[in-house]
Amino acid sequence: MATLPRRFRLEFIIAAALCAPAARAEQAIFGPDGAPTVVQRKLHTMSGRWEAGIAFDVALNNALVDQYGAIFDVSYHPNESLDVGGELLANRTGLSQLARNVRSDLCGGRPDAGCRTSTPKDEFANDNQLRLAALGVARWAPIYGKFNVAGELSVHFQAFLLAGAGAGAVHRESVNLCADPGAATCQNFQSSDLLRPVGELGVGFRFYLGRTISLRSEVRSYFFPSSYKQGNDPTQPDSGTSKRYFAGIFAFASGVSVVF
Amino acid sequence: MRLLALTLLFSLAAAAEEPDVQRIHVLEQRPFTESGRWEVSFFGLRQVNPKFTVHTGLSAEVAVHLRENLAAQLGLTFFPIAVQSTLAEELLTKANESPTSAEAFLLRYAAVAGLELMPIYGKLDVLDGRILRLGLYLNAGLGLARTRLQLRPSTDATTGRSFGDTGIRPLAQLGVGLRVFVSERFTVRLELRDFAYSGYTSTVNGCNRDDARAIQTANDSNQTPSGLSPGCDALAFGSAGANGTARLNAAGAYELLKNPSSEVINNIAFQGGVSWLF
Predict the structure, then answer these.
(1) What is the third-level CATH fold of A52-259?
(2) Most CB atoms closer than 10 Å: which of A176, B143, B183, B222?
(3) What is the DSSP letter of B254?
(4) Is the pTM of this model over 0.90?
(5) How far apart are CA A242 and CA A188, in angstroms?
(6) What's the CATH number for B36-200+266-278?
(7) Does the beta-carbon distance from B7 to A15 stay under 8 Å?
(8) Domain ranges of chain B
(9) How far is CA B53 from the centre of its chain?
């Protein structure tokens, strides 16, 4: 057996001792078939990082109103599955074609001067237009996964639930109740602009394009108190009573976020 | 000394290497296969584009996995809740407007045979716990559907919510979904499914527009309707007479049939359920 010269022995012992921690860090785990088992981690970690995002959103369930806009959000990830922050929502809103069709048929074939009768009418519900909102939001992402789209192109994703609360500017423009007294064809419809408490719940997916950029798609519901009028004499705008209800607007949002 | 310096450099490099950025390609055998197995699924489903109609129902499906990612399937769907939406009733009661018959078509039962392709596999873990396998799939099928129209709103004090039969018609179905394998046998499924069918009809309870008008007129004057076309079931509209429900339901049918309309209805439903592979 060959022996190392004496001056190399000490160097070899020191080198071996230095290599030991590194070797321990890469400890191999062997499976039942003798092949090495791979210990897998999340490719994209979120703990301690900030996130800023912008998304396009469109209302899904409001047949009387067209509503679409943008959501800007900033949040902080204290751990892997939670982030908390705030978001601003700005929407372009207006009555839908269906609502305008209803308005155009309100006279029911009667002449313009006698368009409106004094028979009490109820106002349409769910004509709320959520134009602006500021909300505090928390997202909880209990599910992390990946799938292979084509060959070795793997897409990592998170599935999350979100909840938030804040305030919003809700514009209402009545579809069928006139703001002008009298029986003539209506030129101005009853409307209001109110600041309302707004809550939101949602569910969504985040698809990672890399460590920094990810795409988010969400379905969310905004809910807030609202009201419509019952028993309104169409010729007298001040008549009728207010009926309160809890309004909900479902929206789909999709956008991009940057994690830094 | 050179050996010591070299070894020290390798040692530091090895220790400093961040495990997060390692990329290794592993060929991993799937722990089980679907090929050649049967699958029975049960779903709850709800329409997600409810403008003039609301559908909520149950579905059962049997599939045989011909290959790892291809299955043939047969499904039955029943919508116990298939009614006009609140908006449709509001239009009627507040503005004396109603959707066209094509837009108001209601789906009662559907039977569909088709194929399912699951081209994408993946994995997920829940709260850094157990790793589950998942598959993203597409399916398509053809079948038959039993349909109906709502004739009177729920606010009608005499009839309540009432319906008229509009027969059986062909239906096409497209879906996209996610299957999570909780175990080798048990899976959880989430799916978005589009039921597409023709919304055209010219008869309600086998009666055309003129029959509906004749039934209404005859009952208004406490007479038995006569001269109806073959296949028209006047009794299906309800109780006869000036105080009965037949005249109101026939009037509702006439309103829906007087302006013919035609449209392909896309009834998009979200369904969630479980399935068992054996």
Answers:
(1) Porin (2.40.160)
(2) A176
(3) H
(4) no
(5) 20
(6) 2.40.160.20
(7) yes
(8) 36-200+266-278, 203-259
(9) 12
